[in-house]
Amino acid sequence: MLKALIYRFIVSFKKNIIANYVSQLYMAGLGVLILPLYIKYMGAEAYGLIGFFTMLQAWFALLDLGLTPTIGRETARYRGGSMSALQFRQLFRALSVIFFSIALIGGLLLWIMAEPIAFSWLTFEELQKEDVVLAVEIMAVSVAMRWMTGLYRGVVTGSERLVWISSLNIIVATFRFIGVFVSMYFYGFTVEVFFYHQLCVAMVELIVLYWISDLLIPKRQTLHAQIGWSLKPIKSLLKFSLSVALTSSIWIMVTQVDKLVLSGILPLEEYGFFTLAVMLAAGILTLSIPVSSAIMPRMARLYAEGKEEEMIHVYRSTTQLVSVIAGSAAIFIAIYSERLLYVWTGDLEIAKNASPVLQLYAMGYGVLAVAAFPYYLQYALGNLRYHLIGNLITLFTLLPVMVWAAKSYGAIGAGWAWFIVHSTYLLLWVGFVHGQLVPKLNMKWLFQDVVKIYFPTAIVGWIVSHLIYLGGDRVDLLISLLLCGLLMIFTGTLFSEAVRKLFMRRFSRNE
Fold first, then answer.
1. In whole angstroms, how large is the CA radius of gyration of the chain?
2. 485-494, pLDDT tens digit by residue?
3. Is 306 helix (H, G, I), strand (E, B) or coil?
């Protein structure tokens, strides 16, 4: 019986991670293929506006107040038997009221700020000011609706129904990235059509997520008392929720401050090319999201059940998995940045100009992918104090450095600031946090789970880049790059004990 339970535990966990990776890889790959088409059919300024829209969605998350991670964690606790169905429904209703209120207020404020943003912040020449104002107004509604989905995503994620959410993500991404070209084909390749289409997709996504979460929460007729409309259920969670809110806000500032600063410094056309490079690099962090989505509720559940040793095993194994996948991707993009941009866009000028920025941001995101892990550990323990302090230090360091570097050296200066500050965080603060929470873990984690994988992968990638000619047309170059990327992932797998065992178990079962 025990072996059967453990086997079901492992299988469901793997399914969640695989489902997350399928959806994230699909969305990232779709974005990589589609983004150059935006520039081709809409122009660089219009794409810069799209990049501004993406940044707004990230900054709007500052209003989250830690509520999305809180509902995810409490859903996991409810499923683990730590709270009753009535308590969970009371909490869910209280959070629903707060989510709706913040979405309404935040969206309205952004709508009011549409003209100042268009007239005073953004710099553009080809687009009409009226069109930009309308685009920002549509952004306000779309961003508010997409943020509202956080409540329902938290329920689905906390229920560990990640196959459901992954399937929905694939469908929504298809309509968002590909479907928009259908709309623009019939109504014109304009910013108005693009953003109206995004608004419609956001509306459908919200409705579907509401329906899915409604299937997962306990039904009213099964409760022994009335749910009520009190906000008292969230009082006991305020400390954790506000800790998450503050750390999440700081994290958003840390990861988005460069985009905000440069959106006001660079002309919208140049900002579009900068966004192109950063979006490709950000795909590295996207590769770690499926793992974090899977392990955060799982680690919280293991800790609640008193299985701390199993929790640390999950923590270290998934660190190696991220090091193999996201780490290899970061090193690969950094080494082959110019050739990747040429294969992607088909424009040698864009590839040459954006390559230095992509290289620096790829290395920075490669660091971030593993530096984020102590947050998952603290999330499971229910205490984010160290994460809060570390991110505050990073923010107060990064903000002035980023502003100075961006104003002095443009996008390349921002890239150097990004890489150096985050590398310092990984080497100093992550080690301190590990020492406080799990003594004697850091050196094993850093060298066995990260450096042991990153270093040989980088060596192999560097040797191949210098010894093997990667030329020919774009198709030949793409094939060569894919083979190099697979070689680097294979190298990382060889040096990862956890990933090797995962493949060995998979092959042994198939036999």
1. 23
2. 999 999 999 9
3. coil
